[in-house]
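Quick question, first post here. What does this chain look like in 3D?
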Amino acid sequence: MRLIALSMSSLLAMGLAVLPGPVRGNASYEVLIDLPGTDLQRCASAGDPASPAPLRLLLERQADGHFRQRLAACDGQSFVVVHETLATLTSNTSESGFDRLRARLPRGILPAGPALFARARAVDSAGRITDAIETPRIAPLSLAGNPLPVPSGRWLGPAVFLSLLLSGTLLLGRRPVAWVSGACALLLLPGHIPTSTAEASISQSRLEMIDAGYDDTMRSAAHDLRSLALVLESRTLFVDIAVSNLDGALLGDDDRMLFIGNSLTSGNNLPGMVVRIAAQAGKTLRVKSVLQGGAGLEDHYLAGHALREIDAAGYPLVSLQQGPSSLPESQANLRYWSLKFNAPIRANGGRPLLYMVWPDRSRLDFLDDVRDSYRNAAIATEGAFAPAGIAWRNAWSEDPSLALYDGDQFHPSLLGSHLAALTLFCTIYRQSPEGLPDYIESANGSRTALSPARARLLQRAAWDACRMESAGMGNS
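> Answer (accepted):
Ran it through. Tokens below.
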């Protein structure tokens, strides 16, 4: 058995530390590698004692955004780190919303076995397993067919013989008898030389499993797996995982935020709607609002009340909203005043959230300009982006009869505000609202019923907008 070609006692003697407990932190992943048919000892993984494995690969995000890979082997009682380096993260190599995370394991540190498959798991900040994916067991890869040559005394005989054979051939001439006898003698010597055919077959080896997107148990885009692949290329095993590139939750399960805006935020008490949707999902959100009809961010900044509230309370998240801001000069205005607000928000430990609205019905063709305006302001401030206007369009694409506008064809109806609140919810928590109750709850506890089909449509429209429009925003 060649597990790192070293015994566990040797590894421990080298001063390699025993692997700690469950992974903590944002966007961490674990790959359990199994090699049935070998005599490797198996250890229970943190959080999953029912699925012991001999090898565990941890992929943990570092402070600089890079991922560090740590391969650990079971010593009978716990996992011991035997290989550590940086993994490769490649952005947007699969479908939108997912990046590729690649770990590289030299075959020299892997045992030769008749089968190889793996299970990958996403782990949230509380150490909970939120999503899992497993390669098929029906046709696993094999490391047994072509073990790497390990330098040892068994190669000395063949090497010396070949040298003598070649020397004798040069001296005595090219005699077929010498070559035939030499080849026969070589077959009798210990050891072997890997053939090019075997190497070629290894270079083509690949085992892959595709998973449904955004199906993790916590319904959180920040910890989701899309695919797991094992790729054998010559002398290296690559472990490829397609992982979500969306941010973690912007707020904790018990947190607070500030809303700054105008009647597009105050209509139907949108902040209160977000609070009640969060409560339906088991979260506590406390909000305060600085709202003024017809006001832009410039008006709020110059008036000073919003700035005083930011300085006094230090909100971790501040929603910024003005009109559609689709015209070039309006886009420049939104970006400029978002940056002005960004400084005090950041100075007080917070982060801006650009709440995208929508144009009036007569200017719906400008919806993409509204999206670009708010998205660019979010990028400029390194803030978050809540694409409510895109959620409206998603909903209309499934049901054009939805009455999202109020009577003036600009302000939101109750249904329109509800869809905007769902979009804010999934932006803030990076969590799908699908499965939440089929009604709109008001501040006094009364409920406006929605058909299950309509409730699912709105929830899906909000989630699709959040995960697609927020992907690649660089929100970290």
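DSSP finds 13 helices and 20 strands in the chain.
The domain at 254-469 is CATH 3.40.50.1110 (Rossmann fold).
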